[in-house]
Amino acid sequence: SQQGEEDPQALSIQEGENATMNCSYKTSINNLQWYRQNSGRGLVHLILIRSNEREKHSGRLRVTLDTSKKSSSLLITASRAADTASYFCATDPHTNAGNMLTFGGGTRLMVKP
Amino acid sequence: KAGVTQTPRYLIKTRGQQVTLSCSPISGHRSVSWYQQTPGQGLQFLFEYFSETQRNKGNFPGRFSGRQFSNSRSEMNVSTLELGDSALYLCASSLSSGAANEQYFGPGTRLTVT
């Protein structure tokens, strides 16, 4: 079963616009990660935010984490056609001592040129 | 550094057969995790191996098994294949096992069961 739910399931924007994706999860976590996947290929790690962090930036990416609401958001600024992909949040449950990630259902982002 | 490699990339098998998939982690990485991705169930954790020991196991039947070798390469095996086993199988490697480890994914093996 999936730990997280992502919203929206699909998003279509114009190049240059910002894209915001949200993720909600159910249990306490150690950290939350965001991944990108292009057309059913491997996942690319984007950013990791620890449970004691509230916001993190990486280039055009901004991630927020609200542990009280068990939610996170990923903002991609000034989107490009190359950002077209599926984006997944993944959580590392607090009780887990290994590398077991639980993924959300993903948001399919389409950026139109 | 070379990335995570998975072989084969594509595979077609018949119901009832068995299959073995291989994953070579990034050099120096000791943890390998396996995930199954299907349109219906999404990405689901199968198992994790660290230093040749299974560290975690997901909620999959015993037909799914794996192992890790001393060079950290890992294989997963699915016996008595069912149509529902058709999926993209992804492996991910990480330096170690534990919280806050960044995982690097391979391109996946697409398995089709007919």
Characterization of this structure:
The complex is a heterodimer of chains A (113) and B (114). By secondary structure, chain A is mostly beta strands. Helix content of chain A is 0%, strand content 57%. Chain A contains no helices and eleven strands. Chain A has strands spanning 5-7, 10-14, 19-24, 29-37, 43-50, 55-58, 61-66, 71-76, 85-93, 102-103, 107-112. In chain A, strands 2, 4, 5, 9, 10 and 11 form a six-stranded mixed sheet that branches. The mean pLDDT of chain A is 91. Chain B is mainly β and 114 residues long. Chain B is built from no helices and eleven strands. Chain B has strands at residues 5-7, 10-13, 19-24, 31-38, 42-50, 53-57, 64-68, 74-78, 87-94, 104-105, 109-113. In chain B, a hairpin with a 5-residue loop joins strand 7 and strand 8. The model of chain B has no long low-confidence stretch (mean pLDDT 94). The A-B interface holds A 1-2, 30-31, 33, 35, 40-45, 48, 50, 88, 90, 92, 96-106 and B 4, 31, 33, 35, 37, 42-45, 48, 50, 55-56, 58-59, 88, 90, 92, 94, 97-108, 110.
Count of helical regions of chain B: 0
Mean pLDDT of chain A: 91
Largest sheet of chain A: 6 strands, mixed
Helix content of chain B: under 10%
Shape of chain A: globular
DSSP, total strands of chain B: 11
Pattern of helices and strands of chain A: EEEEEEEEEEE
The rounded distance between the terminal residues' Cα atoms of chain A is: 36 Å
Q: What is the number of beta strands of chain A?
A: 11
Distance between the termini of chain B: 37 Å
Q: What's the rounded overall pLDDT mean of chain B?
A: 94
Seen as an oligomer or otherwise, the chain set is heterodimer
Structural class of chain A: mainly beta
Unreliable segments of chain A (pLDDT under 50, ≥5 consecutive)?
Answer: none
Q: How many DSSP helices of chain A?
A: 0
